[in-house]
Design brief:
By secondary structure, the protein is α+β, with helices and mostly antiparallel strands. It has two domains: 102 residues, no CATH class; 113 residues, no CATH class. 51% of the residues lie in helices and 15% in strands. The protein is built from ten helices and two strands; from the N terminus they run βαααααβααααα. The protein has a two-stranded antiparallel ribbon with strand order 1-2. Helix 2 crosses helix 5, helix 3 runs antiparallel to helix 4 and helix 8 packs antiparallel against helix 9. The longest helix has 18 residues. The chain is elongated, with a radius of gyration of 20 Å.
Length: 223
């Protein structure tokens, strides 16, 4: 049984503290927004596509995209807002690739809707770029097998789950979440790793995500 297999390397759970910083950068038009999206730090792109998950961890899945909200609600460009909202974040392995997709979506829209760039936001309603700064901290929790892994997963904070699922894959650029990477590389259970990797974490609240991962692992190890 998989739970009896000792991992080649134990899984060390981490957590993170998050701070939001002002950049002083702001946009009043679509062209200004586009130019800044191409230049701002990746931490800005991450903040404006993941803010809702970080601030409202128990509420609705499918976090709003700040760019989509602004172009729709402030500039009145609902068509572009829909295109930005439809970007499937889970399909992008890095912040760089996500940034490129957002920028190209705005560029394509402006090419077909040149008059949209004549719209200015009202004073005080500019798009202000913020960035997320994370401090990663080790916890005292270490799992050497899948049984220990599920036991710990049931009691760690959602900040730890957020870090290992979202930040490890997208901000750190590991290409997959930490749980799947560990289960495949240290436990040797690729089927289980793939089952967790296939989850779209953006369609779950963090608590539901915790429960779902635990259920998948327990079903695999028959407990």
């Amino acid at each position: 049984m998989s739970e009896l297999l000792e991992a080649k390397e134990p899984f060390r759970f981490c957590t993170r503290l998050n701070l939001t910083e002002l950049t002083g950068l702001r946009a009043s038009t679509l062209s200004q927004l586009l130019a800044l999206i191409k230049e701002v730090p990746g931490a800005c792109i991450y903040h404006h596509t993941h803010r809702f998950l970080q601030q409202h961890q128990y509420i609705s899945p499918e976090p709003p995209n700040d760019f989509a909200y602004w172009v729709t609600s402030i500039l009145g460009e609902g068509g572009l807002g829909e295109r930005l909202m439809s970007i499937d974040t889970i399909q992008f392995p890095t912040i760089h690739s996500l940034r490129e997709k957002i920028a190209k979506t705005i560029e394509d829209y402006l090419r077909d809707n040149a008059l949209a760039n004549l719209k200015f936001s009202a004073e005080g309603e500019e798009f202000h770029f913020l960035k997320s700064v994370s401090f990663v901290l080790p916890t005292n929790y270490v799992a050497c097998n899948l049984k220990e892994f599920t036991d710990i997963l049931e009691k760690i904070t959602i900040d730890s789950i957020y870090f290992h699922i979202f930040e490890a894959r997208l901000r750190i650029g590991k290409g997959d979440n930490d749980f799947s990477n560990w289960i495949e590389c240290s436990i040797g259970n690729k089927k289980l790793a793939d089952a967790i990797s296939r989850l779209d974490p953006y369609t779950y609240t963090l608590e539901d995500l915790r429960k779902t991962v635990i259920e998948i692992v327990k079903k695999d190890i028959h407990i």
